[in-house]
Amino acid sequence: MDVSHKLIVRNTALNLFGLAVPLAVGFVTIPMVVRALGTERFGILALVWVVFGYFGLFDLGLGRTTTRYVADSLGRGESARIPAYFWTTVLLQTAIGLAAAVLLQVSAPLIVRRFLNIPAGFEAETLLTLRLVGWSLPVMFVSASCRGALEAAQRFDLVNAVKVPLNVMFYLLPLLGVALGYSLPGIVILLILSRIAALAVWAAMDLRVLPVLRTRPALRRDLVRPLFSFSGWLGLSGILYAVTTSIDRLVIGSLLTVEAVAYYSAPYEAINRVGVVPGSLSMVLFPAFSALDAGRRSEQVESLFARSVKFLLVSTGPIFVLLMFFARDGLRLWLGPDFAAQSAFVVQALAAGFLVNTVVAVPNNYLIGIGRVDVAPKYQAVELVVFTALIWAGAKLGGIGGVAAASALRLAAFSIFLMAVSFSSGRIRFDHVWKNGLGRALAALALFAAGLAVSRALGLGLWGAGAASAGYAAAAYFLLLDDEERGFIARALRLRRAPAEPAGTEERG
Q1: CB contact set of 325 (below 8 Å; sequence gap of 6+)
Q2: Domain ranges across the chain
Q3: How far are the Cα atoms of 45, 146, 163, 342, 388 from residue 198, in angstroms, in the given order?
Q4: How far is CA 297 from CA 3, 142, 265, 304, in A?
Q5: Burial class, 216, CB count within 10 angstroms (exposed 0-12 / middle 13-18 / buried 19+)
Q6: Strand, helix or coil at 432?
Q7: Residues 127, 160: contact at Cβ < 8 Å?
Q8: How many CB atoms lie within 10 A of CB 179?
Q9: Is the dihedral of CA 213, 215, 218, 222 positive or negative?
Q10: Which residues, 6 or more positions from 28, have their beta carbon under 8 angstroms from its beta carbon?
């Protein structure tokens, strides 16, 4: 399977579109859903959304494991191995999903009555809703493997052809349910039916893209241990990530005030949304690194690593630099003078941390792709302990500003660690990455920051910031991008006709 740079860019753009459209729809429709359901029922629906959105933490990483082993088989040109890995993970996920469903049926009363503060009169409705969600877990788990096989074949066009409407319906179906007079369980049934339909379509696409899967499903017992060995590390990493990224707000809430949580959380969530670009690339890099490494194409691996680092810094770096310089002004316009006074340093510190962290998707997916899936969770286990101590001290000494500084340090340290491990593996040379994008991208961002500093010192305001941004964009286009990258952008903007795609640039399975 060939993994060209054009294919990587195209798939990243598709993923970015697939993430941005549902976010835009949700921004418009969520207020309508709140008014239609009322705050109590919307709160219950929000819990359902959490389950739908974060089920990957509970499938023990088997969805991404499918992607890795299918991509590895394609990279080696050994397609005959794919059915064994695919059907084994699908059957394991079915079993895990059914076990989770039964567990939720049994524990639902305890969850509703002991752990959730459900208003009087809504307990029965919430209980039925949770039980319905439980029976959807096998569908969601198996969907992860079906979608993962398409991602392994770099068919993100097909993945997003289903995922975009599915995630849009995530927000529209509650409105449809209200219009039809459905209660909350009825709305949840609509959401579950949409997931079943998505699974059916993805499964049909798998059989078309990978005809080798048209075999009788069978569990290969000899593959269970290696599959769980790989997926276990992924699952542990996901759990540690979820805990680590939540602990800062829990510490603020326990040591400071609920109001302080708001002053910290609002800017954090807004800055974190910039991660939609690295997230879009991340989904493409994992199967790409797996396939290229399996095919022993080390030069392509190194080139993809360097280009990806450059792309992320060039595309998202300026956003974080602007946030550092205009934190107070932006907060005043967005959330008012109180947030501007309380949260300006929070924005600046977090923007600096996320600037370094923006490249973490590259080394993380590279290490997982080559089989070093244990690196990140081992670090994260130590990180959780150290970070908890840091934010505790930060909250005591500097309030939410101290917590923000600790969070920025954590974000930067994780990226630097994974980059260092990638270079020490011997397959990625630091000097190659530095010469092919990293050094020039950092220099361009430093000059951009210097331009903004001069503009602010001279009191040029938005005009000066606009001039510095235009200068950065021109320098990035002409000095940081190569001919192939500029050509792709030109074609995307319809500045010139695209040449015919040469035959055989992508193997479709």
Answers
A1: 449, 452, 453, 456, 465
A2: 1-219, 228-429
A3: 20, 10, 8, 44, 40
A4: 10, 31, 43, 11
A5: exposed
A6: helix
A7: no
A8: 9
A9: negative
A10: none
Contacts for 173-177 with beta carbons within 8 Å, 24 or more apart? 174/33, 174/36, 174/37, 174/45, 175/29, 175/32, 175/33, 175/36
For the stretch 394-398, contacts whose Cβ atoms lie closer than 8 Å and that sit 24 or more positions apart, written own/partner, are 395/251, 395/252, 395/255, 395/256, 396/255
Per-residue pLDDT of the chain (509 residues; tens, 9 = 90+): 556 667 777 777 777 787 778 778 877 777 777 777 776 677 677 666 665 555 555 667 788 888 889 988 888 888 888 999 999 999 999 998 898 889 888 887 887 777 666 667 777 877 888 888 888 889 988 998 999 899 888 888 898 899 889 988 888 888 888 888 888 888 889 989 999 999 999 999 999 999 999 988 888 888 888 888 888 888 888 888 878 888 888 888 778 876 788 788 878 877 887 777 777 777 788 788 888 887 777 888 888 898 889 888 988 889 999 999 988 888 888 778 888 888 899 999 999 999 999 999 999 999 998 888 899 999 999 999 999 999 999 999 999 999 999 999 999 999 999 999 999 876 788 988 998 888 888 998 999 999 989 888 888 878 888 888 898 888 888 888 777 666 666 665 554 444 444 333 333 33
Can you read off the two tokens belonging to residue 147?
């979608």
Tokens, residue 212? 């080798």
Single out the residue of 323, 358, 352 nearest to residue 438, CA to CA: 358
39: CB partners within 8 A, 6+ apart: none
The number of helix segments (H) and strand segments (E) in the chain equals 19, 0
Residues 6+ apart with CB under 8 A from 480: 310, 314, 437, 440, 441, 444
